[in-house]
Amino acid sequence: MEPVELERELQKPWEELSTQINTDDRQQVVAFLDSITPADTALAVSRLNAEEQNRLLTLLSPEEAAEVIEDISDAQGADLIEVIQPELAAAILEELGSDHVADLLGELDEDDANAIIDKMAPEEAEEARQFLAYEPDTAGGLMVSEYLDFLSDQTVQDVLDELQANREKYAEYDVQYLYVTDEDNRLQGVLRMRDLLFPKRTTKLTTLMISNPYRVNVNDSLDDLHNFFEEHNLFGVPVVDDDSRLLGIVLPEAVEEEKSNQSTDQFLGFSGIIGGEEFRSMPLLSRSGRRLSWLSLNIVLNILAASVIAFYQDTLAAVIALAVFLPMVSDMSGCSGNQAVAVSMRELSLGLVRPTELLRVLAKEASLGVINGVALGVLLGGVAYFWKGNAFLGLVVGGALAVNTVVAVSLGGLIPLLLKRAKLDPALVSSPLLTTVTDMCGFFFVLSFASLVLDKF
Amino acid sequence: MEPVELERELQKPWEELSTQINTDDRQQVVAFLDSITPADTALAVSRLNAEEQNRLLTLLSPEEAAEVIEDISDAQGADLIEVIQPELAAAILEELGSDHVADLLGELDEDDANAIIDKMAPEEAEEARQFLAYEPDTAGGLMVSEYLDFLSDQTVQDVLDELQANREKYAEYDVQYLYVTDEDNRLQGVLRMRDLLFPKRTTKLTTLMISNPYRVNVNDSLDDLHNFFEEHNLFGVPVVDDDSRLLGIVLPEAVEEEKSNQSTDQFLGFSGIIGGEEFRSMPLLSRSGRRLSWLSLNIVLNILAASVIAFYQDTLAAVIALAVFLPMVSDMSGCSGNQAVAVSMRELSLGLVRPTELLRVLAKEASLGVINGVALGVLLGGVAYFWKGNAFLGLVVGGALAVNTVVAVSLGGLIPLLLKRAKLDPALVSSPLLTTVTDMCGFFFVLSFASLVLDKF
Questions:
Q1: I want to staple B86 with a disulfide (CB 3.0 to 4.6 A). Which of A57, A104, B115, B374 is the partner?
Q2: Contact A291 B379 (CB under 8 A)
Q3: ipTM for the whole predicted complex goes beyond 0.90
């Protein structure tokens, strides 16, 4: 494996792509892009500068450019779309699936998105506007408009004729079901492709279809859809409005993909990357600014917590060894609390706890907090005792860590539930909030306990 | 909305389920489970005690029990399976899809899993053993054995007869393609259901099929599969061994679901929940022990970092105000570093950076570190200056934060790449490693800078 791996790593697809773009040889660029994996396409395109990206998309036909955009993530795709002329962007978007168009436009500023929509063909523009109006994590935001629908008095032969006549178009449709509607586009029934295999060709769809089929409302949430596909093993579900009018279909993989995106956003938010994903190919100042916006809030919270130490300066001056343990107590409690935060966020997302069940979470976490607090307190207290040979130092440090661990895990368990009830995002707010409180409490417990026995040091 | 929501939240499905289990009325239990959503089933089952769970699964038929297990997560399902007799567990597993069986057994201890497999019917046991042998995040671990395959000299009529004869069985198959193999089960071609609609019924499959179809190897990784479905808009892909023998199919939603699970594990690991998911319905001591295993490593790292403060005790005693800023500098740097860790982990998972590109990441992060370090250093240094009116305190604190921010973001960007190359899990190891180093450096910079200008305070 070694030499092969080495060779692969030495290849730099972006350098080759960049060279080829500069030759302006469209066919060569297309051949090169076809020869590499989508992952390498994403890598290569992300490393081009804005001008090279612009030239690449201008060089390719709209269909070819659309294929490139399908290979890369929405955030990256939106960055590409932003650098080119709205006319070209519109032509490229017309080649993409309806849900993909909305995802890309949703990543842009409203003005940029509207400039592109204005250049699209009237029908596609209308559809894009409609799809953009839905929240991304609802059935409306996840549905596609590529589906097959027929009227209930049409026959098997009508369907076969239609399928034959539009072979190429339908070959790209992600659809295994045929939907049957009435004249007003209200959903009447569903047919599977295999239901067409056996009946006579003059049979009307209304006699073959499963009436009153499963459906979801256009406003149903991602969790509703996830539960739906957990319960029903289907390849897609029709989406209807409040009047049962068929608007689109949602595929199970779209639901799983959005779930995965949410987990990613949660992870990034929890780590202090907010306001959308950051890629290192973005401009330095924009990366820096986005990270600073979160850090500068954090520094204010930190100052708040540290003010507790400032208040107890005299105690600290009297027993300088305490300064060694202050960061340890606050850091360890923060870690314990974050574990409880993670468990609460996970249980909330699986529906295993309800935001109102504060007492249950408190009971479960406080009891765990006592056990872990005692264990960690004995450990750290022991270290403090053996270091200075002073039992009171051990008691103060160990006792503070034990008490603060109970506070941290209890609070860590409760915070995501409280934030959820307050309709705030637990992934963004839990950790800074928790850390501030556990820092303050940690400093307070160590220093106030010490000041009680100051004459024993 | 308010009253409805209130009402829903007052219902406690687990209390009702518990009552009904105690009446031993199977039909009533089944009717109740049918009446609630899968999410409420998961919630209710998770809140039962082990004995009630045992009684529930014993009361239901294996088919009904399998439906309950399909509604809940694998980790929960494994907990359920563990509490019942192996005979019953085997009977229930035989009712589940092949991939689901392997997922559940994979969550159990090897001994428990083998005890159950030994009680399964020989054919199912053989299949379970085979599926368990594949890594969960490979094509082998993600594939299902429910697919339709035919020999190349069979005709359209043969297929239709087979479909008619096994209507019920195939209705549950997640399959939209028919696979064509030779006598040795080697993959020859693929057909879509709609390809059967038009040809004469005596046509041989070999003339209809798409020859040499897309396929994946049984050892292909999750990322390979994800890229495959990004590139090819298919409802499934056949999985073959090195001799092109057909072993199963992988569906795109299984790939997306596993991706989502990986994001979740990453988030949980990053927050200090390791060794599988934790649910609050688990026994207290096992929850406590799992969390402690991570925390006790952390406390050792913390002691290491704090030893820097111990070394500089005299400096600290001379300028006690520094003790206020020590936790702030280390905490802020930790936050900055974690942002860089998150960006690196994200870029790695999207393939936008290669583990060998240390210099690229270093250049990108160091320059950002300088900007953010100066910004945060000026802010915190300003606070220190105005608090004590001492310019040197401001310079020491601000300078230390600035330098340590550069260290933290550079290191934070590099650590996931280095861990990936060392084949360690960045989600688990990055954060403790980073925090220890940035704590040590932070304490060192503040205290060593201060000791240089000790006479100015």
A1: B115
A2: no
A3: no
